[in-house]
Specification:
heterodimer; A: mainly alpha; 3% strand; disordered C terminus; B: mainly alpha; Four Helix Bundle (Hemerythrin (Met), subunit A)
Chain lengths: 419, 188
């Protein structure tokens, strides 16, 4: 009997299987860490914006006001669960959940570090290495729209509905640009898996030749991150990513001067907190993805460890990954404190007439530059580049809607409008 | 062990799909019907994952759940989403729709049984199809159907734009008419 109890842990592990235990532990751990991170990010945003506006920010609860968000969360938990009379009962309940869950799910494919060995089992520090990691990220991201759409409709009131229609149009427009901006990355890395993409960014650039000159002194200094060769894709990813999170300068869905609070006007208490939580997890998710896909993921300077603490080596990649993610979160906060909100037609114009064509052109350029010179002759490459540049010029010349209003063919419409 | 798990989960997802598919046609509210459709599509994606077809599963979520149903919801909200009270959506073409649905079901079931009867589905992670396999299949054996579908979708897209913009087309005749009307107003 006593032997049986002593062997119980081993028996349980054998019965359930180490894979399932490891997977469960990863899910629980990442979920917990994300919740705490979100609390810290909300505090971080309030402190940073306060600092930028020469205020103090929350500083009462805990050291540096760290527990402020926790206090707010507890307060929201105990508020009355209010539902408007005209609301659609079940949809109203489901909507906040639909806003929050996809944001958490996106983390399943983010590689947080290299790997650790626990009791002889190699544990990769990524929840799941799907061979279609990027596709998964986009698919899960596209589910986030439901929270906004359903919240707006289910509230049974006009401001949420207008906010949600705006938001849906914005999110489905920018989703296309977001997806297209990741295609060049898949082309360069030769894989859709986030783990492979991070592995492809190891090391540094060697043999740097710029305009026929050999830049030897840069050898081994510039890390082999995709941002170096894929910066246009990164810019598109960043703009589309900010639009996907519905944050400033793309926060039209909740423009308070026009829509009270947009799609979550009728929400209060814990349901409102879920929207809030979803937004911040989404910010962290986009930041983590930007770090993973363009800034080398967990790669970074790896110092030599003394033999005694060599087993702590796994902390270094996690450290670099965290630093990069926090830098992007800071950028999100900075943008919110700096930029004014876009006008709605300008928002659509940027999405459809700049980001999407730009991403398509960049996909062609990347494909041409990375094709095998043996298979594709140089003349063919030059032709493709020439066509791409012609498209690019025509596109820039078409220009701004403020300028095109002066073009002759536009005048007819103006005449018709006033007639 | 693996196969038993797969079979058990298959019945769970199949039940979810069937119940929500019935919900799609019996829901009294269009938005609820669309949400049942989402449940149906996600259930189908889960079955794809059970068969280790991860690419198809997530492409299904991205395209159908994330784009098509969202567009349907968007269209409904722009036009006739009932806020508060529920409308009546029955019409006299019910019987005809039922016949068409039965016919589609019959043909699909017959095709599936005819081509996959007796085929053992993979129960093993090793047999999983990767995105590479899917890509090679699409751009070698199935390149013609793939391109045909692309052209068809493009035609549908252009057609939609033409229909949507028909009234707003600016021709010299409409401009002249507008000018004449303005001149008449000024005369009066």
């Amino acid at each position: 009997m006593i032997d049986w109890i002593k062997q119980l842990p081993g028996n349980v592990i054998d019965f359930i299987g180490p894979e399932i235990i490891i997977a469960t532990a990863k899910v629980v751990l990442v979920f917990g860490v994300l919740l705490v991170t979100t609390l810290l990010v909300i505090w971080f945003e309030r402190r940073v914006i306060a600092d930028m506006q020469a205020r103090v920010g929350p500083n009462r609860w805990g050291p540096f006001g760290l527990f402020q968000t926790l206090a707010d969360g507890i307060k929201l938990f105990f508020k009355e669960d209010f539902r408007p009379a005209a609301a659609d009962r079940w949809t109203f309940v489901i909507a906040p959940v639909m806003a929050m869950v996809p944001a958490f799910l996106a983390f399943a494919v983010v590689p947080l570090g290299d790997h650790v060995v626990i009791a002889g089992h190699r544990v990769d520090l990524v929840m799941s290495d799907l061979n279609i990691g990027i596709l998964y990220f986009l698919a899960v991201g596209s589910l986030g729209v439901y929270g906004v759409v359903l919240a707006g409709w289910a509230s049974g009131s006009k401001y949420p509905l207008i906010g949600s229609i705006r938001s849906t149009a914005q999110m489905i427009s920018y989703e296309i640009a977001l997806g297209l901006s990741l295609v060049p990355i898949a082309l360069v890395a030769g894989s859709l898996s986030t783990v492979d993409i991070v592995a492809a960014q190891a090391g540094t650039y060697d043999n740097i030749v710029l305009f026929g000159r050999d830049l030897n002194f840069l050898e081994g200094i510039i890390p082999h991150w995709f941002i170096v060769q894929q910066w246009p894709a990164f810019l598109i990813f960043l703009v589309a990513g900010i639009a996907e999170t519905n944050r400033a300068p793309f926060d039209l869905p909740e423009a308070e001067t026009e829509l009270v609070a947009g799609y979550h006007t009728e929400y209060s208490g814990i349901r409102f907190a879920m929207f809030f939580l979803g937004e911040y997890v989404h910010v962290v998710a986009i930041s983590a993805m930007a770090a993973t896909l363009f800034f080398g993921g967990w790669h970074g300077w790896n110092p030599a460890f003394p033999a005694a603490i060599d087993w702590l080596r796994w902390i270094v990649p996690i450290f670099w990954f965290t630093i990069k993610t926090v830098a992007f979160v800071y950028l999100f906060v900075w943008l919110r404190a700096t930029l004014p909100r876009l006008r709605y037609d300008r928002l659509m114009w940027v999405g459809w007439k700049r980001l999407i064509p730009g991403a398509l052109v960049w996909i062609v350029v990347t494909a041409v530059l990375n094709s095998d010179p043996e298979e594709v002759p140089t003349s063919a490459r030059l032709w493709v580049m020439a066509v791409v540049f012609a498209i690019l010029l025509a596109w820039v010349w078409r220009g701004d809607p403020r300028l095109t209003a002066l073009e002759p063919w536009r005048k007819k419409e103006v005449t018709r409008g006033t007639a | 062990m693996e196969a038993a798990w797969q079979e058990g989960l298959f019945f769970v997802f199949a039940t979810v799909i069937t119940v929500s598919a019935i919900g799609v046609v019996t829901a009294r509210n269009v938005i609820h019907a669309a949400l049942f459709l989402v449940a149906t599509l996600i259930g189908a994606a889960c079955i794809y994952i059970l068969m280790f077809a991860e690419f198809v599963a997530w492409a299904q979520v991205l395209v159908y759940v994330g784009a098509i149903v969202v567009l349907m919801l968007f269209g409904l909200m722009l036009t006739r989403a009932p806020i508060g009270k529920y409308g009546e959506y029955d019409n006299d073409q019910k019987g005809l729709a039922a016949i068409v649905a039965a016919a589609v079901f019959g043909v699909t079931a017959w095709v599936l049984i005819d081509s996959f009867e007796g085929v053992e589905l993979p129960t093993d992670r090793v047999a999983a199809t990767t995105s590479k396999d899917v890509g090679e299949a699409i751009f070698s054996s199935y390149v013609l159907p793939f391109e045909l579908v692309s052209v068809l979708l493009l035609a549908a897209l252009v057609g939609a734009v033409v229909i949507a913009r028909r009234d707003e087309r600016v021709t010299s005749r409409t401009i002249d008419a507008a000018r004449r009307e303005k001149a008449r107003e000024e005369d009066v």
